[in-house]
């Protein structure tokens, strides 16, 4: 069983992550030797120590909130809205400030555009790694 599929700029096709737990005597069936394959569906399989993920609770929680926005944005991107955010984010702006600036637009659509810009690398937010996503999360264009 694979725990995560992870895609990064270095690995555009992604790779699978499997949390590595010490094997118990009955953790594998008789049809296996207990070793994990190096690849699954032609993608690399990386064993991850669960301890290494302990500090990831905030970023993982934030991205779990962001992903639904990205899914909707992918189907209905609004390039003009995205550009409006880039122009406004010339200095550090909170999410609430961005939503207020574009209050004539649907807030969910604005958030989707903002997060898509983060994924594209056109806007940054170090807060996404250190603080729970909120109205005070700050963003700035690159």
**Helix proportion:** 25-40%
Task: Give the ordered list of helices and strands.
Answer: EEEEHHEHHEHE
Enumerate how many helices there are, as a single number.
Answer: 5
CA distance, first residue to last residue? 38 Å
Strand content: 15-25%
Principal-axis shape? elongated
Number of strands: 7
Stretches with pLDDT under 50, minimum 5 residues: none
Rg, rounded, reads: 19 Å
If strands are numbered along the chain, what order do they take across the biggest sheet? 1-2-4-3
Count the domains.
2
- Structural class category: alpha+beta
Largest sheet: 4 strands, mixed
Description:
This protein is α+β, with helices and mostly antiparallel strands and about 140 residues long. The chain has two domains: about 5-50, no CATH class; about 55-140. The protein is about 40% helix and about 15% strand. The chain has five helices and seven strands; from the N terminus they run ββββααβααβαβ. The chain has helices at about 55-75, 80-90, 95-100, 105-120, 125-130; strands spanning about 5, 15-20, 40, 45-50, 95, 125, 140. It has a four-stranded mixed sheet with strand order 1-2-4-3, with no helix packed on it. Strands 5-7-6 form a three-stranded antiparallel sheet. It starts with a strand and ends with a strand. The model has no long low-confidence stretch (mean pLDDT about 85).
Task: Provide key terms for this protein.
142 residues; alpha+beta; 2 domains; four-stranded mixed sheet; three-stranded antiparallel sheet; 5 helices; 7 strands; 38% helix
